[in-house]
Amino acid sequence: MGGILPLVSFGALVLASTTASTPTGSATTTTTKLCVQLQIPVHVVATNYHYDQPRVDSSIDAIDWTVNVTTWSSSNFTERITERVDVNKTFNIGAQLCVPSRKTSKAGILQIATPGLGFGKEYFDVKVDPQQYSYVDAAINKGYSVLSYDRLGTGASEKPDAYDDVQIPVEIEILAGLTKIARGGKLLSSSNASSAISNASAKFDFVPTKIVHIGHSFGSYINSLMLINYPDIIDGAIFTGLYPNSIEATNPLNVLNYNHAFAKESDPVRFAKYGSGYFVLDNEETLQKLFFQKATLDPALLTYADSIKQPEAIGEYSSEDDNPLAPAPNYKGPLMFFVGEFDNFICNGNCSGIYSEAFARQIYPGVGVDDLTYYLQPNTGHASMLSTNASAGYEVMLGFLDSRGL
C-alpha cells in the first residue's frame, strides 16, 4: 500500500476521514486517518465442549452462576464437561480498519487489536479526549495501519450461543482467520460490505508488509494461545494486561470478585440482542474496582468505560480451564508484556517485582533474549488505555515496535 488513499463513500460502506490527534509527548504534526467499518465473515472449525453449569437468564441467575462455579467442589470446568461440541460455522465479525491518509514508511505494517472481556473495539479508539487516550490515533500518527475488531458475541459482531459457541477455541480461530484474511489482502473484498463497492479505482485493500498483534487482557490471552498453532502468522506482538508472574498462577482473582448482571436485564435497549448466557459488569463501581487506579483515574473515562462496556459470554469462562496458557515454542518474533503497575486483576493490585523471566521463557522459548521484555505503566490499573497517562504508554509500546523494525 502506498501513496494517498482516497476518501470514498459507497452507500452502506463508508470510508471516513478523521484527524488522528497527536498524543502528548509526540511531535506536533497530525495525520488524517481513513477508517472503514467492516463485517467480515470468518469460517471456523474448532472443538468446543458443553459444560454442566447453571443457565443465566436473569441477574439473579448471574449471581447464582458466579457462586456456583467458584464454590462447588467441581469448580474446575474440566470436571463439568458433558459432551464435545464440534463447531464448523461462519461467524460475522465487526471490525474497523484505519489507515493513514498520507504515505508513510509504516503504512504497510498492520496492527490487529483484540480487546479483552467487557470491551469491544472502542477500547482502542477512545472518543473522550482522543489525543490523550486513543491508541488508534497514536498508532496512525506513527504511520501504522490498525484493524480493531469486536470479539465474537460483542459489539457489531455476531452474537451466537453463549454457552457452546462463544468459547476460547473459536475465538482463537477467528483471530487466526482475520489475520490470514489480512495477509491475503482481502479485508475489504471479503467483507459483506464490499458488495457496495462499484468504483474499481478505489484501492483500499492492501497486502500488509508485516502484521503485529496488540491484545488487552483476555484478548492477549487469545493471542498467546493462537501462537501455539500459528507461530508464523505475525511478525511481533504486544500483550497488555497479561503478565507472567509469581502470583497469577497461585492466587488469581475470579468472577466472585466482581458483580455481573444479565445483559438484557441490565439495559433492555442497548443489549436487546443478547440472549441467555450473556452477562455484563453491572456498574461504574465494579468497573473501577476491576480496571482503574485512582491516581490515573479520569471520571470521564470511567463513565466512558460504562458507556462502551460489552457483555461477556458464559462459554468464555467455562472454556478457560481446558485452554490454559501454554508454550508457543515456534514463535520467534519480538514480544512485550505491558501491564499497569497496580493491576488488580493480574497482580492482585501490585505488579512490582513479581515478573517471572522463567515463566515468560517457558511460554516463548524461541524469542530472542533482547526481544522478550516487559513494561510496568506507573500508577495504572488493568485498563491501561483508559488511564490519564495512556499516551505515555503508547510511546513506550510504539517505540518498542520501532526498535524491532516494526
Write up this protein.
- By secondary structure, this protein is an alpha/beta fold.
- 26% of the residues lie in helices and 23% in strands.
- The protein contains 12 helices and 13 strands.
- It has helices spanning 59-71, 130-133, 135-141, 168-183, 218-229, 263-266, 284-291, 299-308, 314-318, 344-347, 357-363, 390-403, and strands at 9-10, 13-20, 31-51, 81-100, 109-114, 145-149, 210-216, 236-240, 260-262, 278-281, 312-313, 335-340, 372-377.
- It has a 10-stranded mixed β-sheet, with helices on both faces. It has a 3-stranded antiparallel β-sheet with strand order 9-10-11.
- Helix 4 packs across helix 5 (218-229).
- 50% of the residues are buried.
- Mean pLDDT is 88; it is low at 1-17, 22-28 and 194-203.
Average pLDDT: 88
> Portion of residues in helices?
25-40%
- CATH hierarchy: architecture: 3-Layer(aba) Sandwich
By CATH reckoning, the class would read Alpha Beta
Number of strands: 13
Number of domains: 1
Distance between the termini: 16 Å
Query: How much beta, percentage-wise?
Result: 15-25%
Secondary-structure element series:
EEEHEEHHEHEHEEHEHHEHEHHEH
